[in-house]
Design a protein that fits this description.
This protein is an alpha+beta fold. The chain is built from 17 helices and 20 strands. The protein binds histidyl-adenosine monophosphate.
């Protein structure tokens, strides 16, 4: 820490934790009343300080060195001040002078070894599953000609604040950064995509077909398949106003399901269009700007009682008559019936019919069904919306998406027709578990290479290098271990071959090979080892 670096030592509220014997130490050294001791500038005469937090014993302030004239330090009792410490730690810990860095703490208690609630570690066995899943996301995206993109996990909070009262807004992990900017961990990828499309402007040629796999953060109530951090696979098409785009997106998800062994009897897609609601609301001359809000209320239909839904709709300015009509339309499960109610002239019915006809051509008709109650919980959708669900009804939505033709203008850009979907990594794993479709993903390495005595460690390294240059994976035994240990390890990592580097073979430019699946054994010249 440099002499100029700011350093937060104690916060007034933390005084509560100070032990009587120590609580007076620092303030008294600085001649300050403890109640008002806050962030206090250490002048150059203070050379160093370490504040240690001990959960059992409150604050300890060891090795606090201070020069003789410290008592001349005056402080306004209530002002927040910062302490400059003369230490090499904390370099780059934010802007000096404006904000303080966190205290240097010595934690003497054992830490909680679990990750924060709702988040996950990925030890090798979990990571293998995640990599396998992501590989399939990528492969399907590649099959459909999409390019991969990514955005920062940390974005400006404003990107995710929409007025419609979405649940996602209350679930934001947001805070002020050291430069006093409101930022948030992204809860979804779509606003970042919109931001990037606006930023790229005319330099990109449409349509864009982009996919991303990114970690998203939502402070959710934890249920099966819902957590506080999850990875989402997104595929989006920017610049295509036709329903062919939605049809193509659903086709890609069906392709993904099929790759994993999931069939149309396991999952399906509920499909509708926000234009259905729009047409009903238009009949009652309900203003356009209420539309997003109405959708958000209706999306809660399965989660809260109907009376509550009606009450919310009414208080947002919808008449009772319109509410009754809306609810009646939302219960419709067939396109023919919808056509009877809305007529054939509007976009809603026409687009949905086109989607179902395209589904036939793509070959996934049995996967999709019309369900007017699907509206989705994000305010920006404007047209077709869809959600993947498990037919046993045990899990939350597997994936969801739709058309959002007017999102860009909400960020000040020119609108471009767009649609896409998000597919989480959590529900699908639960489904695969339920269906017994989780793949066997044991670790695998092609060779394990081991020297038979200490002096041949270098020779074993040479063998490993030769094999790796030929593209073979090698687990090199790095210590002098007995053969029994080597065999155990070979079995654990699923090695295909054991390459033994022994003295007499090495003298003749040979190594010993054992094929572990068959126990076949032979010697081979080093330059013939493939
Ligand atoms: P979403 O429906 O909020 O849509 O999320 C999409 C998918 O992400 C969900 O269906 C689910 O698989 C997964 N997901 C969401 N929240 C969680 C959670 N807390 N835990 C585990 N998985 C979760 C969107 O986010 C849109 N931005 C999708 C989109 C892309 N629309 C157009 N393009």
């Amino acid at each position: 820490m440099t002499a100029n670096t700011s350093f937060l030592v104690l916060h007034p509220r933390l005084n509560l934790y100070l032990k009587p014997s120590t609580s007076v130490l620092l303030p008294s050294l600085l001649n300050l009343p403890i109640k008002h001791f806050s962030q206090t500038p250490i002048p150059s005469h203070l050379s160093s300080s370490l504040v240690a937090i001990n959960r059992n014993h409150g604050f300890r302030i060891p090795r606090f060195s201070i020069s003789q004239n410290h008592r001349n330090l005056h402080s306004s009792p209530c002002s927040a001040q910062s302490i400059s410490l003369n230490s090499s730690e904390n370099v780059g810990g934010g802007r000096s002078g404006t904000l303080s860095s966190p205290p240097v703490v010595e934690v003497s208690d054992k830490i909680d070894v679990n990750p924060p609630k709702g988040t996950r570690d990925f030890p090798p066995e979990e990571m293998r599953l995640r990599s396998w899943l992501f590989h399939n996301f990528r492969e399907v995206s590649r099959l459909f000609g999409f390019e991969e993109v990514d955005y920062p996990v940390l974005e400006s909070e404003a990107l995710f604040i929409r007025k419609a009262g979405e649940e996602i807004r209350d679930q934001l992990y947001s805070f002020e950064d050291r430069g006093n900017r409101r930022v948030a961990l992204r809860p979804e990828l779509t606003p970042s995509l919109a931001r990037l499309v606006i930023q790229k402007g005319k330099s990109v040629s449409l349509p864009l077909k982009w996919f991303a796999i990114g970690q998203c953060w939502r402070y959710e109530r934890m249920t099966r398949g819902r957590r506080r951090e999850h990875y989402q696979w997104n595929m989006d098409i920017i610049g295509v106003p036709e329903v062919t785009a939605e049809a193509e997106l659903i086709s890609s998800i069906v392709t993904f399901f099929k790759r994993l062994g999931i069939t149309a009897s396991d999952v399906g897609f509920k499909v509708s269009s926000r234009k259905v609601l729009q047409e009903v609301l238009r009949c009652y001359s309900i203003p356009e700007n209420l539309f997003g809000k109405v959708c958000i209320i209706i999306d809660k239909m399965e989660k809260i009682p109907m009376d509550e839904i009606k009450r919310e709709l009414k208080s947002s300015g919808i008449t009772e008559e319109a509410i009754e009509d809306l609810l009646q339309v939302l219960a419709v499960k067939s396109l023919d019936r919808l056509e009877e109610i809305l007529g054939a002239a509007g976009d809603a019915v026409a687009e949905l019919k086109q989607l179902f006809s395209l589904a036939e051509k793509f070959g996934y008709s049995e996967w999709i069904q019309f369900d007017a109650s699907v509206v989705r919980g994000l305010a920006y959708y404007t047209g077709i919306v869809f959600e993947g669900f498990d037919r046993e009804g045990k899990l939350r939505a597997i994936c969801g998406g739709g058309r959002y033709d007017r999102l860009l203008s909400t960020f000040g850009g020119d609108d471009i027709p767009a649609c896409g979907f998000g597919f989480g990594d959590a529900v699908i794993v639960e489904l695969l578990k339920d269906k017994g479709l989780l793949p066997d993903l044991s670790p695998q390495v092609e060779n394990i290479v081991c020297s038979l005595d200490q002096e041949l460690q270098g020779a074993a390294a040479t063998v490993a290098t030769i094999l790796r240059q030929k593209g073979q994976s090698v687990d090199l035994v790095l210590e002098n271990k007995p053969l029994k240990w080597v065999f155990k390890r070979a079995a654990r990592i699923n090695a295909g071959r054991l390459i033994l580097v022994g003295n007499s073979e090495w003298q003749r430019g040979m190594v010993g090979v054992k094929i572990l699946s068959t126990n076949e054994q032979y010697e081979i010249k080093l330059d013939e080892l493939e």
